[in-house]
Fold each of these.
Amino acid sequence: MESYYKLPTSIANIVNFCEDHDMKYENYCPHHNKLCCPACISTKHKNCVGLLLLQDVLKTAKSSTLLDSIEVSIKDIKTNIDTIIKNRHDDLKTFGKQREKCQDEIKQLRFKINCHLDELEQQILNELAAAENKVKIKTNKVVADLSEKTKHADILQQNISSLKEHGSDLQAYIGSKMIEADVGIEEKYIQSLIKDGSIHKNLLKCKIDDRISRLTSIKTFGNISIESECLLFTLKTEKEKQAQILTSIPIPIERTVDNIKLSNASKIDKTGDLFKKSDIRGAVILSNGQMLFADCSQRKLILINNDGTLAKTVLVTSGPYDVSIIGDRKVAMSAFRAVHIIDIDSEDIKDNINTHGECQGIDYHSARGMIICYVKSKGIQSIQLFDKTISTIVQVRGDSKTGSFYIAVYGDNIYESRAEQHTITCYSLVGEKKLVYNNTDLLASPMAISVDDNSNLFVSSNFTNSLVALSPDGTICKQLLSFEDGITRPLALYFDVKKNILLYAKKTGPAFIYNVS
């Protein structure tokens, strides 16, 4: 009886007896999800097909995967709640920093104008406080609601445990269905937070009126608005995970250095003397097949069509030393002391991020939303695109302030080439050194580097005029092309993971595309 009372009331009330006909249940109707006595079959289920014997159904009631699946779903709910609560707290901190930033802008401008702005300053500060308070109230309510949901999830988890340990087979079967329904309600609630915008990212923006610095008759200091962005994380349920497992996934190519082959070379030679005075340092292939080259000596980006003809040139103020794709038609370019974000179509510089040092090799980590670049006098640095914060991953060394440095990023690894030191170094995303490759016989003065989807490295050697492939662990280095194949001064290299093609460009052109197998 003590064990019986540990069961939830709703589970304990489940009995193997039909109250309508005063008979024992003997069958189960999967169509209606109902237990049936002989009388039920003749009255309510006479047209149902596929009736099952209850004794057969109950054999696997506790050993079926349903209870385990529900239990995992409950854990997912609790994990999602914890994730959302943490996200809401982090969002409040970010929102507070945004408020402080806006407030600083207001105060800096306030010192430049006369006392007539005292009242307007207070007005805008009150609006800022009101906006933050509004977000706090909304966020605290969501957090409070989620805390209650956590308690409910704990109860469901306890019910599952009690059911598995103390419930009868029938109670396990029917009770799991009831708990599954409760879990479904909680899952819908979690998803509803996304749909109704309750956990969207709150952005505080303050637009200062330009006329405020010139006029004293303005009636408002500016406008305060709160914008929201979609989630930066994904909430998943066990059912979604199972669906993903069952989804057909294309089998990736297993490529090793030993079996890498280059074939069907295509020469980009329809540009006339365009590259004659160039100093091509970087290259990428855009999603539509167009190729973009970074010409350092002529300070421009060169866009080439699929057929090898010139599409356009984009003039820049300094550099470009290297270039990396960060969007469909948007690239990041390393300049003298900055990183420029450039729209290829409009040719506009969308962002100018000061690196406080000469920026060379550059690559983009799309999963982390950050640019990785080598800055002389600083080292390897990361730039978060959403707030432009700069962090140093690997501090510069005494022998690393001169020479040429290229960067490639794939997965959790950062690859760095140092021409003067003749090294290829692999770091983790937090700066932990994993591997150093140094073999001047096979790879002297390494320059441009690119990585395939098997973490194999393609490296150009300016000293030996060759292209080589390096295994992920650095144990195998294989020459793919040499001076005899026409390789001279190779300074730009790009591997297209989606198309399995390798783009290589000489310092003064031309460029070549190889199929990689």
Amino acid sequence: MADDDLSSPLLQSPRADQSHVIIAVQDDDSGSDPSDQDQLTRRNQTRQNSLIDNNKKDGSISWSGSSRNPYEFVGSDGLSVPGTTTADPFRNDTLGVTGFYEIVKILVCVPIALVRLVLFGLCLVVGYIATKLALCGWKDKQNPMPKWRCRIMWITRFCSRCILFSFGYHWIRRKGKPAPREIAPIVVSNHISYIEPIFYFYELSPTIVASESHDSLPFVGTIIRAMQVIYVNRFSQSSRKNAVSEIKRKASCNRFPRVLLFPEGTTTNGKFIISFQLGAFIPGYPIQPVVVRYPHIHFDQSWGNISLAKLMFRMFTQFHNFMEVEYLPVVFPSNNQKENALHFAEKTSHVLASALNVVQTSHSYGDVMLYTRASQLKHEKASIYMVEMARVESLFHISSLEAVGFLDKFLSMNPDSSGCVKLSEFLRVLRLKPCTLSEEIFGFIDVDRNGTIVFKQFLFASAHVMKLPLFRTACELAFAECDTGGNGAISEHELGAAIRRAIPELNEDEIHGLFNLFDSNGDGRISREYFLSCLRRNPLLIALFAPSLMHKDLLGVGKKTLEEIV
């Protein structure tokens, strides 16, 4: 899937499925005064009796449905997980060649495809040479390209139309007209295939926002440099900030071309509008939305879960590929929305969704990363690990890279074909043994109370614990409690002594397994850095240190730490 666009804070769009599963987990004596330290300690030390059944033959563990909240001591009042959705905005519906008509058509079009391939290559080379001539000797790239160089770029633009012709887009239906650049300096569009950037280059010759990785692409990198591209690294906050500044600078000057963005940040199958990134909306200029459609019966032209080579081959072997482009009315930010990019993006997103008559979801490029990672690890139903990352980032402020890390952890638990993990596999990966606390941790995640967990529940639970106001303070105090020697490192004996307060039945081998989980570099000691890093990767394990922290005033320590930071 394509990676064309600016990565800014992600927009949480309305979901296709609004159903939620909300479980409020409270202790029996929740009405007690939280300021009473003695009562708080007694409440957190109270354990409900659970039934852990160790099967004699296969060693599996049955879960008895414990409902105690093991994270109440760090401020959790229970876990809420939105209901799952079957929407898949990235699925290409014609991955395989099916039907007698389609097979015969491909066989007939193979000779035509060879001619089209030659035309494609010839146009690409001619356009590349023309672009090199236009760029030759041009050093002042902070200012608009001189007009005589732009005239040379018309050769490349004509070549881009010929490239579209080689892909089977012999004619393209248009509806509406581009607004004058003085009225709408920014254009946004839905993103379905690699075809749209080629079309917009021919039609509008805009400045585009693209990933830094595109600069190294053969031929393409040179051409987009001539478009005075705004490069961005979606994973770098400073890069995103600089990109927004460049968008604002170029949009404010009529001597520059209009700025084109694909605010979804990746390609979809055109049946949904996913969450918008905010780079196009932060500057607060009027925006003209444009929608692209690819009507089809036998061949889905979307660049979803299909390789580029296969998609190009299928395009070359079609008699004709249909494409429709509709220029919508300009969307103006209101006075108060000019300072609120989120509202402006929501309004524009709704305009595109209404024009396409499709549903809006909270998926984002982060879901593409999760899908890709699951596919790399050979999971057949990779789409079940998509979680609508825009919603997750909005709720918990965790990055897509962090979510991929949690997915790696979850997939190591050997989920079944439906993506469910049992208690025994969960405990194996977290190096825990069957006990009351382990069951409570699992029960905290299993909001459906069916004895298994899915990735979305695991991710929400981990992110929920990480976001708790006292989590960071609890991690710091847990290290201090374990480091009884005061030498800035924890030994295996010290870690075992602290964890046995929560799970007294742990033997030496089990302590050693947990120690290895924290001891990332294997030097036989756990530094503060490795300890905190392990808890960030495995935030659910903070429950192991609850008994050691019961006598601590976490809230007071947290306020003091915050004052020291300020």
